[in-house]
Specification:
The chain is built from 16 helices and 12 strands. It is α/β, with parallel strands linked by helices. The protein folds into 2 domains: 54-173 and 321-377, Periplasmic binding protein-like II (D-Maltodextrin-Binding Protein, domain 2); 176-316 and 401-442, Periplasmic binding protein-like II (D-Maltodextrin-Binding Protein, domain 2, 3-Layer(aba) Sandwich).
């Protein structure tokens, strides 16, 4: 461009005019581009790609009907591209009925992606079968926050695995005192309350055990079979290294057995059947982890927190639930992890609370939401606080041989309560001998 010659004021004015026009033109051009970006002519956007359809096989811990009712629909809504072929992990095969054994799945090379496994079965069902898979990297990749869970639920799994996490926990249970309000009113005694020690509960049981009008009333029925699994003393039944029974070697078992058997040794309180409370209305208290039950229609009951040992104030049951694991052979580990992350999410565990199921969610909302979707609870006041111990007992290390040891100890506790065994030490020795034989046969 050639230089523009100007003279005098007219030339100056002309130059100013042209500069203004240039500035105006540049402004218009930038404005047009801005409008184009803001809402005029938009740049074409790449099409949203839908996830590829994925099919997963899951071996779970509940029936197919219950899984679909409680989790299946929610998972399908959350992950419409994922289809889950669900089977109950059972003791026998019934494929058409929605049940499959692990042995059958392995023999037929069924592609199992997800599996619900009890803590004591991690070694047998995951490690020994080479299905175990450390999900640590998946936890980081998908940003799952382990901090929303009770730390004991993670510690329990690590005590079995030695460190790796093979799955995520979801459920737990808790012992509590169910009590028959009508019987306490009948005999003019105060209702059980939170914070009772075992000794105080024993004294209440003695007062409530009586025979009136030809009816034998029981002071307390105790489910000590399950109480062994989630015991407040944090003691294991079998040494995880030597696979020997701990009933004699661990002194705390003497305390555990003596504490519970004494209830059955109260004259008139020998029976230990749950039906005395749940159906017959003859038991004043029922100490168990049994879920809230709407079928006990003839019983006017409520709950209080489980008794505690005097030197373990507020310590309730430990965690002995299941984990849902991603298998090493899954070809869709990311999708499988997304499923278990949802099952162990705050959203899902609050839904569980509303249905009346305890979870490992360490959040006060689990307590405030508990039971809100249970129809039969409408209009009935239940002391929901009792479902949540002040403290969870620290976990012990479960083993695949716990069931055999448990059966041996239950047998000897029953014999001790009935007077067939001389004393606690003898009962523990006999239980240990029987447990060791059963473990050896199982191995």
């Amino acid at each position: 461009m050639y230089p523009l010659k100007t003279t005098g004021k007219a030339g100056i004015a002309s130059t100013a005019c042209m500069a203004a026009c240039l500035l105006f033109t540049a402004g218009c051009t930038n404005s047009d581009k801005g409008n184009e970006q803001a809402g005029g002519k938009t740049e074409p956007q790449p099409p949203v790609t839908q996830p590829e359809p994925v099919r997963l096989t899951m071996l779970g811990s509940v029936t197919k009907e219950k899984f679909m009712e409680e989790d299946g629909a929610a998972l399908k809504k959350k992950f419409p591209h994922i289809t889950i072929d669900y089977y109950l992990l059972g003791a026998k095969d019934d494929i058409s009925g929605g049940q499959m054994t692990l042995e059958s799945a392995l023999a037929t090379r069924t592609q199992v992606d997800l599996m619900a496994v009890g803590l004591s079965n991690i070694g047998k069902q995951l490690v020994d079968t080479k299905l175990a898979y450390d999900i640590g990297d998946l936890i980081k990749k998908h940003g799952y926050n382990l901090g929303i869970l009770y730390p004991q639920s993670i510690a329990a799994q690590k005590s079995v695995t030695g460190g790796p996490l093979y799955g995520l926990p979801v459920n737990r249970s808790a012992h509590k005192i169910y009590y028959n309000k009508d019987l306490f009113d009948k005999f003019g005694e105060k209702y059980p309350k939170d914070g009772l020690t075992w000794d105080e509960t024993y004294e209440i049981a003695k007062k409530m055990t009586r025979n009136e009008g030809g009816v034998q009333y029981l002071g307390a029925v105790i489910d000590y079979r399950h109480m062994m699994l989630v015991n407040q003393l944090s003691i294991g039944m079998v040494d995880p290294v030597t696979h020997q029974s701990l009933f004699v070697k661990e002194p705390k078992w003497q305390r555990f057995v003596s504490n519970l058997v004494r209830f059955q040794q109260i004259p008139g309180n020998e029976a230990n059947a749950a039906t005395a409370f749940t159906k017959e209305g003859r038991a004043a208290m029922y100490i168990a982890s049994t879920d809230l039950n709407g079928t006990w229609t003839g019983i006017n009951w409520d709950i209080a927190k489980a008794p505690t040992f005097s030197d373990l104030t507020g310590v309730g049951s430990s965690i002995h639930g299941t984990i849902t694991a991603v298998t090493s052979t899954s070809k869709h580990k990311d999708e499988a992890f997304q499923v278990i992350a949802y099952l162990a999410s705050e959203e899902n565990m609050l839904n569980m609370a509303r249905r009346g199921t305890l979870s490992v969610l360490n959040d006060p909302k689990a307590k405030s939401e508990f039971g809100k979707d249970i129809p039969w609870l409408n209009g009935k006041t239940i002391h929901v606080e009792a479902m949540f111990p002040d403290k969870l007992a620290e976990p012990y290390t479960p083993t695949p041989y716990d069931a055999a040891a448990q059966a041996a100890l239950v047998k000897e506790m029953t014999n001790l309560a009935a007077g067939k065994t001389a004393d606690v030490n003898t009962a523990l020795r006999l239980a240990a001998e029987e447990a060791d034989k059963a473990v050896a046969a199982q191995k």
